[in-house]
Amino acid sequence: MAPRRFNQVDVFTTTPYLGNPVAVVLDGDDLSTAEMSTFARWTNLSETTFLLPPNRREADYRVRIFTSASGTEAAGGLPPELPFAGHPTLGSCHSWLSVSGGPKRDEVIVQECGVGLVEIRRTLDGLAFAAPPLIRSGPVEERLVEHIASVLGIEREQIIDAAWADNGPGWIAVLLESAEAVLALRPGIVDLELGVVGPYAAGSPAAFEVRAFFPKHGATTEDPVTGSLNASLAEWLLATGRASAPYIASQGTALGRSGRVYISRDDDGTVWVGGGTMTCIAGEVEL
User: Fold this and answer.
1) Which pTM does this prediction carry?
2) Which residue, 42, 44, 63, 258, is most buried by CB atoms nearer than 10 A?
3) Would you place residue 177 in the very low, low, confident or very high pLDDT band (cuts 50, 70, 90)?
4) The domain 3-131+275-286 belongs to what CATH superfamily?
């Protein structure tokens, strides 16, 4: 085994330990997939990433993202690899910038990952990634909406709208009447990837409260702050006229966190998802 540089980065926060942590191995060059998966399971964080040299000349670095939070294990019981995830993208970029000479282009950092090339830029609110396109959108059939209401422990009438908002993880977006209704949720056993959102009153510091639920080993897990979900929610909320950019989403309140996700949109329609990043642990791991 060899010592490798390692960071644990808190994402979507400017206050340590109130965001969503990601483990980042900065020297993942010669590790096998099984070794990466094993370490990801050991960290017991929702995601662990490994930085590698890029394969594509346009990219500044390549990242592989592994999760220990999925209910579906790969062969051999090892955690699966993700093609993309939001807070691991920002945490990985934060770590790469701390040890690199900077990106090839001043205005943008280009990450290579399973979905291809993802652009990241610096903003006043922290790093922000360009939201990947939805691979599934559109309305959810009524029978499934009724099932979602059941697992969330609410009446069907409390769901204002629901739609597929899948940019990789399989999210279904669920809109409730208010942020307070979102915070009041006490779900049962969730068997889907559900992103629930509700608006705050006009003039509030945040426009929406977000919660993310998904299955893990037969139980329900809630993610503190979720970049991929906020990306797909933003595309849905903006397209349906329920939000206008820029706006701030709050997530993690129900877990004692204070995540803040900053959504903006360019004139060409590109949605950007950003927030603060902070290194909370730095050192070496033996891998």
Assistant:
1) 0.94
2) 63
3) very high
4) Diaminopimelate Epimerase; Chain A, domain 1 (3.10.310.10)
